[in-house]
Amino acid sequence: MESKLKDKLRRLYRMVKFRMKNSPLDFEEDTLPWIDRSDANIDAFVKTFKTPKDFPYDLAKLLRDWRDNGYVILEKAIPPQWLDNLWQEVEEVVENNEKYSVKSLVYQFNDGKETPVKEVPKEKLRGIGSRLLEYHNSSIGAKKVMTHPHLATFLDAVFNEKTTVFQSLIFKYGSQQGTHQDYPWVRSKIASHLAAAWIPLEDVSPDSGPLVYYPGSHRLPKFDFGTGILFSEQDSFYTPDEFTNYLNKTCAKNGIKGTILLLKKGDVLLWHGALAHGGSRINNPALTRKSFVCHYSTLRSYPKHRFEEGDKSIAQLHNGITIYANPTNLAEEDVMTAGKEWN
């Protein structure tokens, strides 16, 4: 009891100390991507942006949707066969997990530890709650999917800077994750330089725990964890659950209702790093929601891999998007080579 009181007093002290610094509780204005600024002129931007001739969408409309709603949907963006092939690769990893020591292929246990897949029983890898983190480092096919030209074009337009891959997750079942925004956890040097993609690897059923998102929530006031808008296990005064409660209450107060998203295989949802979203309840545990989730930033915000001790990381360029090799496991970069043959 005494230790809990001391911990609470320490956290309170850190919160007061932070507030005395008068630090900003929002994204810093001068670092915002152009489209998030009050003077953003979408029509003028589109006139000068070099949109590929084979880009099958109305870029101006997409950018307005992004500005106003915080997300866009690219229908039929990725060849379904690529996605079938990608999931077949994942199944191979799970079935033969003893072969893989790749740290980027992990199961995240309930205690938050990340473990190489070869150390995880197959039944756990196959179960609800299992995720493969940073799978793209090991897979040429995953790199091709996450940097498909349609995605690359839109991300280049949103940032109007060089784009880089930040992080990826692959999972079989719905996440059932509470309402959250990505920027407090998926962090680089500039908090506002963050976008994400959800790429369903199968058609989504309403009973499989589909994604729920809150249109326009990216414009809500940022949550103060007591030490700023970014979460820290050691320093933050408030918990992720309190963050979820804040988002649910604030969305309701502002009349923002959650929308369930039922995409088809080949469609892609791209969302702003501050869009509130979560995973709904899985009503039928027999149903899967095979998903590939990717995060993106800019080279200015994410100039090297976060595990890199030196000044630069080994990198590849895919459709103009930079992907850093994992410096802790270079030997198994691109060990899944089937993607070379995908057309």
TrEMBL record:
<dbReference type="GO" id="GO:0005506">
    <property type="term" value="F:iron ion binding"/>
</dbReference>
<dbReference type="InterPro" id="IPR008775">
    <property type="entry name" value="Phytyl_CoA_dOase-like"/>
</dbReference>
<dbReference type="Pfam" id="PF05721">
    <property type="entry name" value="PhyH"/>
</dbReference>
<protein>
    <submittedName>
        <fullName>Phytanoyl-CoA dioxygenase</fullName>
    </submittedName>
</protein>
<keyword id="KW-0560">Oxidoreductase</keyword>
<keyword id="KW-0223">Dioxygenase</keyword>
<dbReference type="GO" id="GO:0016706">
    <property type="term" value="F:2-oxoglutarate-dependent dioxygenase activity"/>
</dbReference>
